């Protein structure tokens, strides 16, 4: 008899014969949801900064166009060609900068890439929203109570926990020490790979990079490409403004006409924002090439990834890895079955097909399982052609690229880990793969298969013994055999 070893105390699988209940699939598609910052001061900063930036751009446009190009170069110096070159570059980069800013701002407002709240957190949020306004303002202590309930929300230990299936239906996912996915105690939900909890929004965000009030909110999977384009074009825009201002000032000083305070102002603003965005562009470009986020990079010196990698059903734990088997076993009271093992062959064929075993392995410090190589990393975020790289229209290919295999495309390290830990190959199971889809769909597919097989057996039996009626399964005539 083959045995499956499970790290969980109880090992009988849950019955699959019950009717499949409809279950939400929170990670099946991206959630479009507007999420505001938690702290009022951050919300106000997020609203006021765009106004401040618009003022800076308006001032720079007035100085560069009116005072430098029109008044100084065309009317005073009679250098129309120089003015035309500056104006052309200025407006091209201004347009691209504004387009990228608008794109990143709208994406952050309407599709920030937040992970849906778990049922408990959703209920609390709904309860909070339904409370009268006066009550919301007046009782600070009660606010804290609501938050504190969420902050200490322990992991959902229910083997049927909503959303678990979206992890174990894949071939690899990031897991905790016992093979379950990572849990966010504030959102009360399982965290998809590479999601981090943002304290400003109080929500988990996919591929969170950082919170940026300059562009209106959180930079993550959905907005990172447009953010990089914005910083890149802002750098170029500032270079043009500084160049026009510097050339103008140089001529003014050389001719003894004195210094124009407006031009000095543009020089200062352009220098500040230019340096800032240039640094951001460089660091963001580096993260793109190595497929890291700002958060990943901060932890990269110490972070070890723990992955659940699918292995053939019934694989035993190895010397340096444990295993976990899904669906997770349900607690039972029978002392005879309360050990660490479950009789694999006692499960029906249908139940055996639904079982998926994962090896729990750890990477070395600094290893990145999603590193695809410089060029593929770049393409996964910026797009596959130069138009995508330069224009803020199409979204990053990695956005919504979740497949049946993994949340994000895995790099060569995935196969290296299989070799390093000598994990058995999946080739035996590949011939009889569990159908994708929800648990209900899988069960229905298995039931249909079983019915078809039974029909075929009955037909064969009828052909062999045409005079005798077919024996029904479970009928008195067959029960004694
Ligand atoms: Zn969270």
TrEMBL record:
The keyword Transit peptide does not apply. The keyword Transcription does not apply. The chain crosses the membrane at residues 44-65, 85-108, 230-249, 261-282. GO terms for biological process: protein targeting to membrane. Residues 140-158, 426-451 have a biased composition (Basic and acidic residues). GO terms for cellular component: endoplasmic reticulum; Golgi apparatus; membrane. Residues 120-163, 426-481 are annotated as: Disordered. Residues 181-300 form the Palmitoyltransferase DHHC domain. It is found in: Membrane. One of its GO terms (molecular function) is protein-cysteine S-palmitoyltransferase activity. Keywords: Acyltransferase, Lipoprotein, Membrane, Palmitate, Transferase, Transmembrane, Transmembrane helix. InterPro entries: Palmitoyltrfase_DHHC, PFA4/ZDH16/20/ERF2-like. Its main location: membrane. It holds the Pfam family DHHC. It is a multi-pass membrane protein. It catalyses: L-cysteinyl-[protein] + hexadecanoyl-CoA = S-hexadecanoyl-L-cysteinyl-[protein] + CoA. Residues 457-466 have a biased composition (Low complexity). Its EC number is 2.3.1.225. The DHHC domain is required for palmitoyltransferase activity. Belongs to the DHHC palmitoyltransferase family. PFA5 subfamily. This is Palmitoyltransferase. It comes from Cercophora scortea.
